[in-house]
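Note to self: keep these together.
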Amino acid sequence: VKSFARIHETNLKKQGMLALTFDNVDDFDKIRQDDKVSILGFNTMERGKPLTIKLSHADGTEDQFLVNHTYNEAQIGWVRAGSALNKIRQDMGVA
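Structure:
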């Protein structure tokens, strides 16, 4: 995606979804229907730092490209917890 409407991006973040945009929009054409997609750097995700997408194609070849995000530290916590509500539950100590 080139960009998100602000309210849509916020809703994705609250639901624990990754709202990522291509650093280079031409990278969209590298994606194939049967690709295995890996997000490199997710576990060390930081505000303002891009993530790397690794595509493993069915023919054994691979591609990598950068994607950007606008998550702050709190929002990164939401996505790692699965959603903003899950993060609130964790912080309250509720299972």
